[in-house]
Amino acid sequence: MTARDAMEFINEQDEATLQRFVERLEFRGKDPTFVGYREAYVDKMALDRTADVLELGCGTGVVTRALAGREGFEGRVIGIEQSPVLVEVARRVAAEEGVGDRIEFRVGDIHALDVPDASVDAVVAHTTMSHVTDPRTVLNEATRVLRVGGTFAAFDGDYASWTFGYGDHDIATKMEDAIRTAVVSKPRVMRDMPRLLSDAGLRLVDVDANVYADVGQSAFFLSAAESYAPLVARSELMPADVVDAWLTDLRQASADGMFFAACNYYAYIATRE
């Protein structure tokens, strides 16, 4: 099987993989640290209460729902996602949480948005840029649909920095590379973002930099390992027995309070002038 970013090619995934992705996206959306990162950059966007907001690659709608549900917000939120399965989940959960009437979810390609020029006040790409086929095209589209003075926000992991503690350092390095291959096509994109934003006609105005260090007893990155390790084995990036041993070791390390994993995360805020 060809190894490539399963999120980028999500419409090729089987039901079990899609369910793991749904669970992982919703888990991240409730993680206090991840929520804190999101709320910090959204606060910096200073959205008008009647703003028109577009989220690119909205997944199950975690961020779209959070935007629509912000206190005092009365604007419109559109979430665009390439997976019909994730859009169906997004619509259902938004309705369950009472914000479905304030959100429009669409199936679409964020490289070619079916959105008029200069028609939205803000665009958000939350954990999206590391999975797109062509970041430049996506950013050009974001600029096109933004009104003059509009705000663009990109939040994502610098997955080239993503690491797990494991006794065999050679296997650790190979597993980290394998996971990146299986689920992230652009692991260094956040390092390129200042130049990419400028090239797209966006002016960088602020940046948040965070290190998510999951040490001791893990929830956040152990969940990620459990979600993505099966893709490593399925794609034959690493032997299945090695993947199983790695995952078993991580689970035991967490149970024993000796777990370690970390990744850098960045949020960029830019404006269209």
N-end to C-end Cα span: 45 Å
The CATH architecture designation of one domain is 3-Layer(aba) Sandwich
Classification by helices and strands? alpha/beta
N-to-C series of helices and strands: HHEHEHEEHEHHEHHE
> What low-confidence regions span 5 or more consecutive residues with pLDDT below 50?
none
Molecular shape? globular
Q: How are the strands of the largest sheet arranged?
A: 3-2-1-4-5-7-6
Count of discrete alpha- or pi-helical segments spanning 4 or more residues: 9
Number of strands: 7
- Please, what is the average pLDDT? 96
Biggest beta-sheet profile? 7 strands, mixed
Q: Kindly identify the CATH topology of one domain.
A: Rossmann fold
Oligomer: single chain
Can you describe what's shown?
With 273 residues, this protein is an alpha/beta fold. It has a domain at 10-160 and 184-212 and 265-272: Vaccinia Virus protein VP39 (Rossmann fold). It is 43% helix and 26% strand. The chain is built from nine helices and seven strands, in the order ααβαβαββαβααβααβ. It has helices at 15-30, 32-45, 62-68, 84-96, 135-145, 169-183, 189-199, 220-234, 240-255, and strands at residues 52-56, 76-81, 103-107, 120-126, 146-164, 202-216, 259-272. Strands 3-2-1-4-5-7-6 form a seven-stranded mixed sheet, sandwiched between helices. The model has no long low-confidence stretch (mean pLDDT 96).
